[in-house]
């Protein structure tokens, strides 16, 4: 499925890249100049976030970093994502390239990663996350509050292919006495914003982080409060993945990349993904989760975890929240996610997860 890799390089010594990358270097410091290969999808968003990580890894290691483009089935297929297997489609080709030593590391949007971690691979670093919220990109600078009144028949047509966004937008509109119609769309960020600029839809909902990374956050007309629309677990965070035991040029790459890890982001997204896993929900389930830190001035005091699951028509939402000490380990973060998921299941969450539900 991978086509011929093409490369772009960060840092010096890119010319010598192809013959030696990946081979264990016997000469200590000298081998540190040989390039690291970063596997990336071709999309504008993937290229933007891989480029940013490439810069950071170059600065960290002093080594050139070259981008190796990998085409995934999710990029090629025009079929609906659900029909070709959901979450894993964007990820598996990159993981295959890691396992076959074609690339040294990969960058994923954390929210697109399945919650189960393959044995031989590690999320070596989860850097500090971007704004995790969703945003509205609406015509004429409008917002959720102002859009319906100026739309045809008083009904704002809002594009999103995400059951999570549909459920929460519909519930929000219902509770505010406003009429919206959620219209299923898919495609990359440019395509989705295009539905608004070409007049086909009144608005679309997107992740702030994606728009920021491709330089289009200025087109957002409203940041959606997490109390109204809770983002997807892991939204706004990246994961840098590599082989667990891979030695590149005599150094354990995972240990080096770990310097880019942000411990607060890691515990937060670990709790969010644990909640998702414990609900036995996939990426297409209407589940939102967000862990955030509460601070007293500069001092972080507690972590709050919020979770939501709903019916896509917005008639039923199970929304819960818990606040406690900041987890001091991944195990504690996992436990927190599981506890909140168990409470959500008690309140009927399973019945809201479509055919996956019992
Ligand atoms: N579902 C696709 C996807 N995967 C990651 C992002 C960007 C945001 C992020 O990294 O969390 C997006 C676009 C979106 O949801 O608008």
TrEMBL record:
<keyword id="KW-0627">Porphyrin biosynthesis</keyword>
<keyword id="KW-0808">Transferase</keyword>
<dbReference type="InterPro" id="IPR000860">
    <property type="entry name" value="HemC"/>
</dbReference>
<dbReference type="InterPro" id="IPR022419">
    <property type="entry name" value="Porphobilin_deaminase_cofac_BS"/>
</dbReference>
<dbReference type="InterPro" id="IPR022418">
    <property type="entry name" value="Porphobilinogen_deaminase_C"/>
</dbReference>
<dbReference type="GO" id="GO:0004418">
    <property type="term" value="F:hydroxymethylbilane synthase activity"/>
</dbReference>
<feature type="region of interest" description="Disordered">
    <location>
        <begin position="1"/>
        <end position="33"/>
    </location>
</feature>
<dbReference type="Pfam" id="PF03900">
    <property type="entry name" value="Porphobil_deamC"/>
</dbReference>
<comment type="subunit">
    <text>Monomer.</text>
</comment>
<protein>
    <recommendedName>
        <fullName>Porphobilinogen deaminase</fullName>
        <ecNumber>2.5.1.61</ecNumber>
    </recommendedName>
</protein>
<feature type="modified residue" description="S-(dipyrrolylmethanemethyl)cysteine">
    <location>
        <position position="283"/>
    </location>
</feature>
<dbReference type="InterPro" id="IPR022417">
    <property type="entry name" value="Porphobilin_deaminase_N"/>
</dbReference>
<feature type="domain" description="Porphobilinogen deaminase N-terminal">
    <location>
        <begin position="36"/>
        <end position="244"/>
    </location>
</feature>
<dbReference type="Pfam" id="PF01379">
    <property type="entry name" value="Porphobil_deam"/>
</dbReference>
<feature type="compositionally biased region" description="Low complexity">
    <location>
        <begin position="1"/>
        <end position="29"/>
    </location>
</feature>
<comment type="similarity">
    <text>Belongs to the HMBS family.</text>
</comment>
<feature type="domain" description="Porphobilinogen deaminase C-terminal">
    <location>
        <begin position="268"/>
        <end position="345"/>
    </location>
</feature>
<comment type="function">
    <text>Tetrapolymerization of the monopyrrole PBG into the hydroxymethylbilane pre-uroporphyrinogen in several discrete steps.</text>
</comment>
<dbReference type="InterPro" id="IPR036803">
    <property type="entry name" value="Porphobilinogen_deaminase_C_sf"/>
</dbReference>
